[in-house]
Amino acid sequence: MAPPHVALFPCSGIGHLIPFLRLAATVAARGCTVTVIALHPTVSAAESDQLSHFFDLYPHIKCIQFQPLPFKKSKLFNEDPFFMQVEAISNSVHILDPILSTLSPPLSAIISDLSVATSICRIASSKSISTYVLITTSARFFSLMALLPKLALRESGGIQEKAQLELPGLGLVPVSSIPPPMLDSNHFFSTVISSNIPCLSNVKGILMNTFTGLESESILALNSGRIIPDLAPVLALGPFEPFEVERRAPVGPRSILPTAPTLQWLDEQAPESVLFISFGSRTALSRDQTLQLRDGIEKSGCKFLWILKSNKVDKDDKEDVQSILGESFLERTRKQGVAIKGWVNQDRILAHPAIGGFISHCGWNSVTEAVRLGVPILAWPQHGDQKFNAAVVESTGLGLWAKDWGWGGEKLVAGDDIAAKISEMMLGKDLRARVKAVKEIARQAREIGGTSEGFLSLLVQELKLQEK
Ligand SMILES: O=c1ccn([C@@H]2O[C@H](COP(=O)(O)OP(=O)(O)O[C@H]3O[C@H](CO)[C@@H](O)[C@H](O)[C@H]3O)[C@@H](O)[C@H]2O)c(=O)[nH]1
To answer: Which InterPro entries does this one have (predicted)?
Structure first.
């Protein structure tokens, strides 16, 4: 019997691309024929680098380049370049219709990003192709997204003025944790979510990069129909492995090069002594906040490795570290740490024994990487799903969250406060022990007999039954 053919369709931004590529590698390793529908051109250089690295490693995975139609400014116009690309993609999905019919062998299933799920579902069902949706955020935030159509209805009831909301499956939620765009039903972000949630009753399954040991309550609430009565089954498959590991082969030079000198420096540091600081692929702190963070890191006296960003899009991030942080800081901290700009292999850095803590914006990929590798987190959510993700970090004892720091840019957090929290995290013995315990639970989830492994086997079995 020929293997089933599965296409994956990630959306804009590395935070969406990476989990799709990880899942593509996993499904291919289980004997499926895999096609990745890759955006071209990408907004960031990091996305195109990840794509070429991925296809170098997996020459047997097919690539279809998908070029959205030129962007037209709409009434929902949002100047974020990643949102602009999502809108261009949404307006262009119909181009895929004839392409999907010509794939050989014929497609059995397509795994789509939520932002285009409705259109993909429509095209796929006309061809008897099953649709799955891969959710790239936490089960906790996904629950909020699923409730959004109801939240928007209550907007006239003055949600913004309330301190907290009682939400099904989520309990009491501080309104300050809900990303402001979700409280505005005309915002692009809200519109994309609200228009795609209803199709989640018609898809075959909802795939998530989480696991029951991390988010049991949210996964249960989603699967018991408490959030949306007829939601498709949620399969918690995480935490995802990096795709290099999935292949279990030597890593290609592209992924080694940018990280190699940094790893050399890390090799010289004591175990669990280095603080890693990174705010993901698309968050740049303000200049003032960067300087306070700089002072906080120095005052903490902690060894550090800081990946600095001064622009949302990497192609435009031209300013060098010296001019941002100042020569004197770099000179004074020559023995304390390293600040660099550019792409590093974060998963590999978090796996290094010298890393003892992570200041993170709580992008969901970063959280799941830290969980899988047992690194405590100091959560500093900046926007979007990140406060919900930070709540998962805090409630499962994986890290600390200074809630009074607010959203990114809401207030200037002082260097002294940052230094105090860094020390609390790096010296927290109980915290470290809890993080190691959750790391073990994550490992067990992926082993034979584990929950994530069970869901993955179920998915692959289902795919094989749909083979055409
Ligand atoms: O120098 C770098 C920077 C990032 N990464 C990787 O890039 C990914 C970044 O993803 P994430 O941590 O989720 O952050 P964002 O890039 O900010 O992701 C966006 O997408 C996520 C998934 O939907 C959301 O949770 C975030 O809030 C949203 O900002 C992770 O795998 C990192 O390991 C690197 O390897 N090297």
So the answer is: UDP-glycosyltransf_plant, UDP_glucos_trans, UDP_glycos_trans_CS
